[in-house]
Amino acid sequence: MTSQALLGALARAVDTSGAAVGRGVLAESGRHLAAHLGTGPYIVVADQNTWAAAGERLTFSLEDAGCTTIPPLIFPGRPTLYASYDNCEVIKAAMGAATPIALGAGTLNDLVKLAAFEMTRDYAVVGTAASMDGYTGAGAPMSEKGVKVTRNCKAPVVVIMDLDVVAAAPGFLTASGYGDLAAKIPGGADWILADVTGIEPIDEDVWAMVQSGVAPALSRPAALAAGDADAFEGLVEGLCLSGLAMQAYGGTRPASGAEHYFSHLWELAHLGVDLDPPLSHGGKVAIGSLAMCAFYEALLARDIAAIDLRAAADARQPWDEIEADIRTTFDGALADHAVRETKAKYASGNELYARLKPLVDQWPAVADRLRAQLVATDELSEQLRLAGASARPEDIGLTPDDVRATFPRAMYYRSRYTALDVAWELGIFDDLVEDVFTRIWI
Ligand SMILES: [Zn+2]
């Protein structure tokens, strides 16, 4: 069972050629795998939880389709498997000549993705939770010698997502996927601003691939929290499409904006790693998404067309001052990283004037595009709450002041151009952050 939207995305995807999303598709998984990857041998890589959820049925389906398997590699169910390079080595050692199938969610998928890439081997994934959009992506975030790095690998050749399996997954995993998909709302708005300013034009096909399914996918939060399998179709498809769009685009812009930088920074600070289960990617992204939706509300409340752009461009801080500020905001290697990233998008004087002129000149039309893309912060917050996702800073162990302090850090953290940069360049950044915390959100 493959929808038109998925078929269209597969046609543009670089690595992934087969996807099956639907109720009961696990029983057909062997046939899909045989059609795209041959009859094996295969090795299923799981943990005790995901093996219990679908291991035997996957193996039976493979045998039924005439595929051979070698004994599965099953990691312990507790503590939660960690995305460390050691575990990747364990998979590589177990693989032999077999084609690996990741049976699990984010971490297992990332580990198998990296192991297969390093062994120049194709692989497949049978997803067991609607927890993130990385199933169909090429990146594998990994801890290596205590540092977080995203290794660029290849995406799976085949992705199988049985809605009955993912609906039965623990609720915190579904909540994470819901948060990760909600990020496409402010993330898309950031791409609109990068498009208007000529920094990163929108690819219309890729845009439609990601954005067309977001609203329906987020429309039934309570049914998702209740584990209603039919309600998962939109969410799972939306997450798969997001990953495929990143493949087609060759980067993460279609699926992430400044909201993800809040999450990355909290991840670097090891927020919630000691919890059981550890704080999820989507849990952090949900709070970043609310922060950015609120920031957009503050931006849209301003008459940007009335700003004296020449004066704003002339008032731009010189680079030396910005670099000094970055070095007081971050420590050590992260400061060097942020200096490099921010320098790449820094502009002043005539260059800055030219960049922002279309935005200011066409502001009513730009504001309409942004309003069509965004949802009210209160509304998104309520949807996240109904989905069982994090909806307030304290849900992820932060105070509003912690989130507030992350705004400038999120701006400096990556070269990607977002609403944070627009506001900063227009000289209204601090005012908008103030509005977020006094008027709009918390
Ligand atoms: Zn994400």
Automatic annotation (TrEMBL):
SUPFAM superfamilies: Dehydroquinate synthase-like. It holds the Pfam family Fe-ADH_2. GO terms for molecular function: metal ion binding; oxidoreductase activity, acting on CH-OH group of donors. GO terms for biological process: phospholipid biosynthetic process. Gene3D superfamilies: 3.40.50.1970, Dehydroquinate synthase-like - alpha domain (1.20.1090.10). This is 3-dehydroquinate synthase. It comes from Tessaracoccus lapidicaptus. The keyword Oxidoreductase applies. Keywords: Cytoplasm, Lipid biosynthesis, Lipid metabolism, Metal-binding, NAD, NADP, Oxidoreductase, Phospholipid biosynthesis, Phospholipid metabolism. Signal peptide: none annotated. InterPro entries: G1PDH, Glycerol_DH. The keyword Signal does not apply.
